[in-house]
Structures are given as structure tokens and as C-alpha cells.
């Protein structure tokens, strides 16, 4: 018995030490948190976003760091789960990060942005589009993507005006992002005088859509808008085509991943997704794409360049402010215009991009192509 | 609220829901048979059966991928051999789980094997998640697309309202046929073969059966193998039908199949089939009428109601028949 007690005591002492070590911050580096979903359903989108940011940090380190110090990337995986996101956010705070690039899912950014704000940590999200995020008036929160309100408008305009459809079915995955954009689309649709024949939420784990498809089919919808991530919209498109429902499928940026085309296969027809403009054709973005392919040996996901540009903005602003203090850096970010791989970036007083637009992408020969600019 | 509810009832595409519900229900029934057979013979719930179903999914895709890299893509042969591979692998898992997690606990307190089963289920799930990754996978389109054509159109679409036509696809026919064939074979085996008689004997009185020379351990192991094989086939069909595979698929479908077994009367084989079909149909009608977020609320509320009103299930636990 004394032996076991001794063992437990030793373990406890060891644990205290271990905890102490992880908390002591090394003052010779500047810590940046890279947070996003890196495993699970949305892994494809979030992982390349985090990797994009990591490339930027490494570039600056190769140039000698910033403010005379090296940068240290602390990459965390929130699994696209809001509870887990709160945990990793607290972890990042404890580790003494000065800024966070993340999170990816709106449902992870919304609960964590308050944590970072309380700890005076600057946050730039490269991927969360939920309109609510920048409505809370957090001065040190920015995003380098557009808002769902804009996305919804582009979607609705295309389906309603260009295609001339009047009866819309809406389905969403019951998350902050999915339900948010689905509601904005439905509201806009009704405002325009269209009819929303079906509006329903599903669970994120659902993979069997036959009953939803049967309902949509019977209600005579002329188009389906899905506030879904690619992991669900891919199989849904496949299943609805097989069940004889040929109406256009429209979706937002969460569906925009090559995995959607893999899942839908030959049935990826009549698909219209909103996303940012084609970045790869921009000359200033080309070096990033080459670097990404060389480093990771695979195609960058659509959000990789957003992660990269967010890091570029953050580091440029820190250098300009000559400080890592969130308030000072934020002041520079609100004022200045930044040259990034995505082009010029400037923020308005809410932390949203001043200039941003969405375009409609469609699937052609198993690839995403821009339908209209 | 009530008014909109009644209005939504009027437009329910009941025929198509009946078809999709029956198809899904027949797959639940295949899984439910595994639960009910093991309960019949050991009076324990093998919660790991849902994970065996999930392992069947991944094993089929793995087998198909292996074969197509070995000798090329011969759709029909690879698919059949892929299913065979899944059945063998799932049987191995089923047998292994009985041998490792349950056999030594056979005479322990009733909670011991139950807890062991829950533990095993978590172990298998996390194991697959760690080995293959926790992102969703796609069932190879090359093998599922040839089944997509429509066999028969039951209702023509109405151009005036925009409603689409209702039909049955080849895959749905295949799923129903496979499920029916397997269930018929199972009934035949239990009632007309020596091993079936042995299974029934063990389920009625294990001690007496061993006294008359029935190899009880073998019979129990065989029961697990049969249950796992059925779950594996259900896994293949389900992943073809939904075109995706996820490490967590076993929990969702497994729990519904377990509910099906309870509703039909656990230990009762026709009960499991009836329960599976009921669960599938109720689930799809719930999605269409109340919305997908209500599916689990309704299903598990029905489970509780059944347990309160008819604790032995709809068909009851017929002692003479149970296996």
C-alpha cells in the first residue's frame, strides 16, 4: 500500500510539473494559434485552410521572423464541433497566443470569439461566413471571406432571375452556418415573390435522404437549396438524381470541395454553388499555389488561400503596428489596405471585407468552373 | 400549428415513403436479426452488432478496391467477392468478439456481458476511426451506378404541380430480394436443419442441451457468425444505397435495429423482421411529416411505449421458437 501511494504521489508531482511547463510561455517567440477543423466530416476544407496559414508563418520565419522574434504556430483541431472548439480556444489562451487564425466553421467561431475577445486576442477567421459573427461589435475580430447574406443574395438572384424559377425547397444541416444561410435564402426568396415549398433541417450525421427527396419531389420544387457541407451535399445530389429528381441544386461555400464531386460522381449535374472568385487565375496567387503543392504534394482545398491571406494580413499589420497588442494591431487593420495573395484587402469598421463578391460555380467535366463572373 | 400539421399530412408522398421505408427497414431487419438471435441464445444484448455492420461496409469497399487493383474492374464479380470478403471478415469479428468479450462472462452477472458489449462496441468504432480515418468515404460509384436505373414507374409525375414520378430502382429491388432470400434461408436453417435444431435446443436449455451432446460453445459461436454475416451484408447494401461510409454509421443504424428487435419481441425472429420494417417505414414518414430532426425522438419514444405497453414486443417472446 505505501508503495502504491508513493507511485500515485510521484505521478501527481510529475503531472503538476508537466502542467507548469506547458503554461510557461517562452518569451523569445510570438505564438499564433491556427484553429480549424482538421479531422471528421469537414476535414478537407478546414485542414488546407490551416495549412495555408502555416505556409505564411514559415515564410516570415525564413525572412527572420517579426519584431525581432520568431513565430511559433500552434495548430489545433476543433473537429468542427463547438464544444471541442471552446476547449481548444481555452487551450490557446492558456498557451499565450497573441492572435488566432480561425476557426473554420461558423458554429466554432461564434462560441470562441467571445473567449478570444475577453483575453484580448486578435482573431481573423478565414472561413466563417455566418452574418452574425461581425454583428457583435468585437473590435479585434476580422474575416477575409464574405458574409452569408451576400452569398444568399447571389444564389437567389441566379435561381430566381437568371433561371426564372419560382418554387424553392430548402434543406439545412441545423448548424449555425447551415441554418443561417438557409433562412437568409428562404427570406430573400419570399421577398422576391417566390414560394418556399419545403424548409427542413436534418442532422449532421444523416446520410440517408430518401424521405427528404420524396417530399421535395411531391411538392413540385423547381430548385433545391442546401445549407449543407460537402459531406452531405455530395451524397444528397447523387441520391436525388438516382431517385429521378433532376432540379438544380444550389449551395453555399460549405459544399464547395472536390469531395462533393467525388461523392456525386457522374450525377454531379445541375449544381450551382456560391464561392469567392477564381483565385488561381490571379497572378499574385500563383506562387502560393505552387508552394502549397510542393510542400504537401496534393491539391490545395478552396480555403487554403484564405488561410494564407489571413496570415499575411495579420503579420503585415503587426509589423506596421510594431506591437502584438490586439488593440493596436486591430487599429492598423481597420485603417490600412493590404496586398495579399488574394489581391487588395481592406476592412470596414465591423471587421468585414470592404470589397468582396461571390460568383456562381458549377460542375463541368468533374471540376468546379466559374459560371458567371 | 395543428392546421399546418394537417395541411402537411395531405401532401405526404405516401407511396414513395412506403417504398423507401420498406427498403431501409429490410436492411434494419437484417441487423436486428443479429441482435435477436444472440439474445435468444444467450439472453444478452450484443451491442457490438451495429459496429459489425459498419465493419461490413468498410470491408466491402476494401475488398472491392483490392480486387480491382489485382485484376481490374469486373463490376459483378468484384462486387460479389467484395460482399463475400465482408462476410468473412465480419464473421471473424463476430466470432472473435464472442470468444474474447463474452464467453468467459457467460455465467457472470447479467450486467457483465452487457457492459462488455458496450465496451467492445466503443473499441471497434474507435479502432476503425483510427485506422481508416474519421472523414466520410464514398462507396465507389463504378459499382453502385449500374444499379441506379428504374425498373418500374408506379406513378407518373404531374407537370401541372411539378411533382416528380415515383418508381422503384434496380438497387431497391436488389436490396429487397437479398433481404428476403437471406431471411428465408435463415428460417429454413433454424427450422429444418440439424444445426438449427441445436440452436433452438441451446436457446431453450443450455445445460440440458450440453447433456445430450450438443456442442454448446460451437453452436453459440455459430450464432454469432450468422448474425455478423447478416449485419455485414446489410452494411454493404446500406453503403451502396446511401453511397457513403462513416465510422459512426454503426451506432445510428445499430440502435435503430436494436429498437426494431425490441419492438418485434426480442428473441423472436419474425418479430425482428416485422420490427425492422416498421422502424424503417415509421422513420421515413416521420421525416416527411415532422422533419428529420424528429426521427430519433419518435423512434425511441415508440421503443419506450412498446416497453411499457407490451414489454415482450408485438409478436412476443415465443419461447418455443426463440433462437
Our count of helices of chain B gives: 13
Order of helices and strands of chain A: HEHEHEHEEHEHEHEHEHEHHHEEEE
Oligomer type: heterodimer
Q: Structurally, how many domains make up the residues of chain A?
A: 2
User: Which secondary-structure class do the elements of chain A indicate?
Assistant: alpha/beta
The profile of the biggest β sheet of chain A is: 7 strands, mixed
Percent helix range of chain A: 40-55%
At CATH level 3, the topology of the largest domain in chain A is Rossmann fold
Amount of beta strand of chain A? 15-25%
- Percent helix of chain B, as a range, is over 70%
Main interface by residue count? A-B, 41 and 45 residues
Radius of gyration of chain B: 20 Å
Proportion of residues in extended strands of chain B: under 5%
Q: Identify the overall geometry of chain B.
A: globular
- CATH C-level name of the largest domain in chain A: Alpha Beta
The low-confidence parts of chain A are: 15-24
Task: Please characterize this protein's 3D structure.
The complex is a heterodimer of chains A (373) and B (323). Chain A is α/β, with parallel strands linked by helices. Chain A folds into two domains: 27-146 and 281-346, Rossmann fold (3-Layer(aba) Sandwich); 149-275, Rossmann fold (3-Layer(aba) Sandwich), CATH 3.40.50.2300. Helix content of chain A is 45%, strand content 19%. Chain A contains twelve helices and 14 strands. In chain A, strands 7-6-8-9-10-13-14 form a seven-stranded mixed β-sheet, with helices on one face. In chain A, strand 9 (249-251), helix 9 and strand 10 (271-275) form a beta-alpha-beta unit. Chain B has a domain at 35-140 and 166-247. In chain B, the strands form two sheets. In chain B, strands 1-4 form a two-stranded antiparallel sheet. In chain B, strands 2-3 form a two-stranded antiparallel ribbon. The N and C termini of chain B lie far apart (46 Å). Chain B is mainly α and 323 residues long. Classes of the chains: A alpha/beta (373), B mainly alpha (323). Chain A binds chain B through residues 39-41, 43-44, 167, 174, 200-203, 205-212, 214-215, 217-222, 231, 234-235, 238-239, 242-245, 259, 262-263, 265-266, and chain B through 11-13, 16-17, 20-21, 23-24, 133-136, 138, 141, 145, 148, 150, 158, 161-167, 169, 171, 241-244, 246, 248-249, 252, 283-285, 287-288, 291-293, 296.
Amino acid at each position: 500500500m505505501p508503495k502504491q501511494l508513493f507511485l500515485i504521489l510521484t505521478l501527481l508531482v510529475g503531472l503538476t510539473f508537466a502542467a507548469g511547463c506547458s503554461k510557461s510561455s517562452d518569451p523569445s517567440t510570438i505564438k499564433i494559434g491556427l484553429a480549424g477543423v482538421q479531422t471528421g466530416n469537414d476535414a478537407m476544407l478546414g485542414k488546407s485552410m490551416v495549412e495555408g496559414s502555416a505556409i505564411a508563418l514559415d515564410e516570415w520565419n525564413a525572412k527572420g521572423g517579426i519584431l525581432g522574434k520568431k513565430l511559433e504556430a500552434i495548430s489545433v483541431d476543433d473537429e468542427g464541433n463547438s464544444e471541442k472548439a471552446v476547449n481548444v480556444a481555452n487551450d490557446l489562451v492558456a498557451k499565450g497566443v497573441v492572435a488566432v487564425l480561425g476557426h473554420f466553421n461558423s458554429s466554432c467561431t461564434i462560441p470562441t470569439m467571445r473567449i478570444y475577445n475577453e483575453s484580448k486576442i486578435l482573431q481573423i477567421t478565414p472561413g466563417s461566413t455566418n452574418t452574425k459573427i461581425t454583428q457583435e461589435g468585437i473590435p479585434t475580430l476580422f474575416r477575409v471571406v464574405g458574409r452569408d447574406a451576400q452569398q444568399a443574395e447571389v444564389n437567389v438572384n441566379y435561381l430566381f432571375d437568371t433561371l426564372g424559377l419560382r418554387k424553392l425547397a430548402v434543406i439545412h444541416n441545423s448548424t449555425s452556418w447551415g441554418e443561417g444561410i438557409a433562412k437568409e435564402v428562404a427570406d430573400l426568396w419570399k421577398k422576391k415573390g417566390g414560394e418556399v415549398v419545403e424548409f427542413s433541417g436534418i442532422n449532421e450525421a444523416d446520410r440517408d435522404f430518401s424521405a427528404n427527396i420524396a417530399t421535395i419531389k411531391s411538392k413540385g420544387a423547381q430548385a433545391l437549396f442546401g445549407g449543407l457541407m460537402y459531406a452531405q451535399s455530395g451524397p444528397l445530389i447523387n441520391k436525388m438524381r438516382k431517385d429521378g429528381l433532376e432540379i438544380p441544386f444550389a449551395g453555399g461555400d460549405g459544399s464547395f470541395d472536390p469531395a462533393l464531386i467525388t461523392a456525386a460522381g457522374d450525377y454531379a449535374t445541375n449544381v450551382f454553388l456560391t464561392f469567392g472568385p477564381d483565385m488561381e487565375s490571379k497572378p499574385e496567387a500563383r506562387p502560393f499555389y505552387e508552394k502549397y503543392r510542393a510542400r504537401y504534394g496534393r491539391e490545395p482545398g478552396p480555403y487554403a488561400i484564405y488561410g494564407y491571406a489571413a496570415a499575411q494580413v495579420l503579420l503585415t499589420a503587426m509589423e506596421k503596428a510594431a506591437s502584438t497588442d490586439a488593440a493596436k494591431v486591430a487599429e492598423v487593420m481597420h485603417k490600412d489596405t493590404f496586398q495579399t495573395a488574394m489581391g487588395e484587402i481592406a476592412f470596414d469598421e465591423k471587421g468585414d471585407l470592404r470589397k468582396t463578391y461571390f460568383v456562381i460555380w458549377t460542375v463541368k467535366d468533374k471540376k468546379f468552373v466559374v459560371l458567371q463572373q | 400549428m395543428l392546421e399546418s400539421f394537417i395541411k402537411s399530412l395531405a401532401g405526404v408522398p405516401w407511396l414513395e415513403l412506403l417504398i423507401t421505408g420498406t427498403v431501409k427497414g429490410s436492411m434494419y431487419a437484417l441487423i436486428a436479426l443479429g441482435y435477436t438471435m444472440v439474445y435468444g441464445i444467450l439472453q444478452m444484448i450484443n451491442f457490438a452488432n451495429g459496429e459489425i455492420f459498419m465493419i461490413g461496409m468498410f470491408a466491402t469497399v476494401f475488398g472491392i478496391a483490392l480486387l480491382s487493383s489485382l485484376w481490374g474492374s469486373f463490376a459483378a464479380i468484384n462486387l460479389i467477392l467484395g460482399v463475400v470478403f465482408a462476410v468473412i471478415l465480419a464473421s471473424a469479428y463476430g466470432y472473435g468478439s464472442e470468444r474474447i468479450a463474452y464467453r468467459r462472462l457467460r455465467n457472470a452477472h447479467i450486467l457483465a456481458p452487457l457492459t462488455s458489449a458496450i465496451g467492445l462496441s466503443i473499441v471497434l468504432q474507435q479502432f476503425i476511426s483510427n485506422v481508416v480515418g474519421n472523414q466520410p468515404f464514398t462507396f465507389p460509384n463504378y459499382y453502385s451506378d449500374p444499379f441506379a436505373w428504374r425498373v418500374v414507374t408506379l406513378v407518373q409525375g404531374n407537370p401541372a404541380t411539378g411533382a416528380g414520378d415515383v418508381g422503384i430502382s434496380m438497387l431497391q429491388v436488389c436490396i429487397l430480394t437479398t433481404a428476403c432470400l437471406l431471411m428465408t434461408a435463415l428460417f429454413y436453417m433454424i427450422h429444418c436443419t440439424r444445426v438449427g435444431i441445436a440452436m433452438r435446443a441451446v436457446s431453450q436449455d443450455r445445460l440440458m442441451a450440453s447433456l445430450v451432446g450438443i456442442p454448446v460453445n460451437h453452436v453459440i459461436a455459430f450464432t454469432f457468425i450468422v448474425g455478423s454475416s447478416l449485419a455485414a451484408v446489410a452494411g454493404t447494401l446500406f453503403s451502396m444505397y446511401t453511397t457513403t461510409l462513416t465510422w459512426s454509421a454503426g451506432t445510428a443504424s445499430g440502435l435503430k435495429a436494436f429498437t426494431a428487435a425490441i419492438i418485434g419481441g426480442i428473441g423472436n425472429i419474425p418479430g425482428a423482421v416485422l420490427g425492422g420494417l416498421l422502424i424503417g417505414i415509421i422513420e421515413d414518414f416521420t421525416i416527411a411529416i415532422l422533419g428529420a430532426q424528429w426521427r430519433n425522438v419518435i423512434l425511441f419514444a415508440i421503443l419506450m411505449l412498446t416497453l411499457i405497453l407490451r414489454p415482450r414486443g408485438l409478436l412476443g417472446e415465443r419461447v418455443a421458437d426463440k433462437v
